[in-house]
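#onboarding

Welcome to the new folks! Below is a worked example of what a typical request in this channel looks like: someone posts a single protein sequence, and someone else replies with the predicted structure as tokens. Don't worry about understanding the tokens yet, we'll cover that in week two.

Example request:
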Amino acid sequence: MQSFITCSAPIISAPLRAPALGVKAFFGSSSQRSFAIRKPAVLRRTLTTTRAEGVARVEKSESDWKKELSDAEYYVLRQKGTERPRTGEYDKFYPKKGFFACAGCANPLYSAQSKFDSGCGWPAFDKCYKGGVIIDVDNTLGMRRVEIMCAACDGHLGHVFEGERATPTNERHCVNSISTKYVDAEPPAGLVEAKVV
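Example response:
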């Protein structure tokens, strides 16, 4: 179903298309514009949950998150922000042992052995602890983006890039340093590493 709106405007003779917004505007040689407003296409987002049964959910109000996290941590973890490249604490940090946990809830996410130097400006991992990370696949605007989040608290970690052939798993988890905390200890028993996508 289309609706038409006519209004007075200066003469402009060029088509304008904004398909992502579901709007077509045709500018003619008269002093009137006609807009055809279409129902926007369905945006396809898929939330893939791969939570392990042993991962306990961490539920807090936004005011509690604001009290517990620094402003920068809140911006990245809760508002899905991104730290500037090459500024994070763990970008060039390669420990031999230990693991990385969520900065918001301490859920184990990555082993130290899964971290590698991708040169992207953010810490990179090729696999995560099974069930520790969930993904949100966004296929809108003609491209595929795979967001990674902590499976316990839904804190934003970064994005996964596939198909680069840089690692045996063919995945690069590009993670904000501020979303994680390095733990210099053995990870909890029973954790198994796996691909997330």
